[in-house]
Amino acid sequence: MTKRLVLSMALILCTVAVSVADVQIKKLDDTNVEITFTYKDDAASEVGVIGSFDNWTVPGEAMSKNKAGLWEYKLKALVTDELQYKFYNKGTWIFDFKAPDKKDDGFGGNNGLIVVADVLAGAVAGGGKPGAGIAAADPYAAKLNFGMFTYFGSKSSFVTQGLVDKTKKGLETDTTGLMGKSYWKIGGTLMPGVTAWFEMKAFDSYQAVWAQDSTGKVSPELPAGLSGLVFGLLSNPVNYVGGGMPFLNSIKTGLDTPDLVWETGYGYAKPTGHSSVLWETLEGRDAGNGYMRFDLGSSHTKLGAGTLAATFAPNMMNGNYSLFSWASYSQGDNKLEIQYDMKSAEAATLSKIFNKIYHQDILLSGKAKALGITFLGQGLVNLFGESAFTPKANISGETKVSWSAGDALGLTGGYRFTGSSAELLYGDNDSSESDTLGTKGTQRVLVNVSGRSSDRIKAGLDSNVTLTTADLASKAAEVYAKPWIETNLDGVIAKKASLNGYAKVKYNLKQGYSYAASSSSFIFGEAGAKLNVTDPVPGVVKGADLYCGFNNWDDYKGFTTVIAALRMARDVGAEVGVSVRTARATDTAAMKAQNNLLGFTVGGNWKIPAPEFKTPLLHGAFVYNMDPYDPDNYANLLMTDFVPTGGQSKMDGKAQLRLFLKWDF
């Protein structure tokens, strides 16, 4: 959606500087510009800016504190560039709401969008001349922007132990071929106030050139596979790689007026998500059979001293006639919101929507701040058409109270009750996440404390006690604790450096309970540390991250990993890691013999300096008995805190060699 912007311009000699909220653009000459990103977060120990300019490679370009205390990064770009970006902080992707423009990110959110030529043209649209001072910008002209997420290359998979006799170790080819994924995205303004977003799946598949199954049967044989490869790439490459015809898999369009904001989407398009006071009540999910969304326009959001917001969205995202809707009123730090969602049993006849309703959610949430204390509360009532209502099953709620003295001391306490049938129709029901309603049939008491003893050290303890509602008589409870520390090592081992660490433990009070991994009621489940050093070797290595992790949650094996990620000069990156997979003392001799003790990974990438081809990323990696990379975006590490996501089972007994080119803009 195009924004109406007010841009300031200071023209000094031949230099043009444009200020757009957190982005400044300085014109260096007729071809080149310098873009300065700034971000404010006093509590953050590290922040990056990530985007199409670095192929969305985590953790992005490291920002540093400027004299004003803001995180800052300067990027050289071309006048013809169109850049998308977000800020990145410890696994959290942050949209810049004050960006010059925005573009649908395909995941129910938006990326910041900088069309350099448009911003520069807007800055002088008011007739500004050198020394003329501030000039107001005209709105951007209506236009569509093309984007693409594509990777294409080769993947060879191996087994590192026998398929039948797993005590036999080695390296045997399992399959080799071409892998590729390509989604083409077009989005922007069709005309003033009218937005559109389209996504086409060009291909997303793997084509084997040679493969064998568990019995040793080979299909295709190498000659047949190679001939198919040559013929496919020469005659119908998209169909060959994708295993089928390209198709339009997502459509989203909308109209933005002062009175009403309207949006409709289909296929894999995602409506903008919604987080209430405590829970994510509309997570980024596919539109499926479609939705129609109406939001209150900007001319009606002002109510007294506060702000009113309302959404009404009939849809068929769940296959049946359904609805998500909410209304909220906020004033300063205070907010009150009500949400109603429902799913009908009817999927064909509109007049029968209310004959039977499968699922209804009624949510009420509030936020208030007084005397420096923040109060948060959220409640849920589930109504199911095929089961009777009982409070223990159908009612859930959570409260949190927090207080802080700046960054010096922070306290949070909370209580959550989750009904035995609790479920959000559109929200996030993953009980492992912090912004969900929790595990069904449980109660949780939470206490978090954090404090900063000096400019060097910040530490805290996240803890909770979880009880099973149906088992309260036995006074069984599981205690969880995560002590953590963040240390600032600037000037100690390098000009800028930090060392962060944590541990996770659980203790179950239920009589006779024993964790399989520890054979006791106590388990040391996880520990991790991360060392970050900026510019450790000037002119050669711009940044280095060292991850050390110990994952002990698995019933049968412990998993220790050490991974180093380097960001080097000339847009080169590298990753190297080793792992040790240890069997439990209680495992049988056969299980110990089958264990794959050692693993390693070696990978690297290079951002090819070819702006005329959108600066693709060349990435290659060999992973053996471990794989710390993101399977949806192989160029990025996928970590949970400081341990690889997926634990010890990911790539256990397997290996892969991957080499591909990637575009993401």
- Assembly form of the protein: single chain
**CATH architecture tag of the domain at 1-141:** Sandwich
Overall pLDDT confidence: 87
The separation of the N and C termini measures 18 Å
> What are the segments in which pLDDT stays under 50 over at least 5 consecutive residues?
1-21, 124-140
H/I helix tally = 5
Give the proportion of residues in helices: under 10%
Strand content: over 45%
Largest sheet: 24 strands, antiparallel, barrel
CATH class of the domain at 1-141: Mainly Beta
The rough form would be described as globular
CATH topology of the domain at 1-141: Immunoglobulin-like
Output the radius of gyration. 27 Å
CATH superfamily of the domain at 1-141: Immunoglobulins
Secondary-structure-derived class: mainly beta
Q: Tell how many strands the DSSP assignment holds.
A: 43
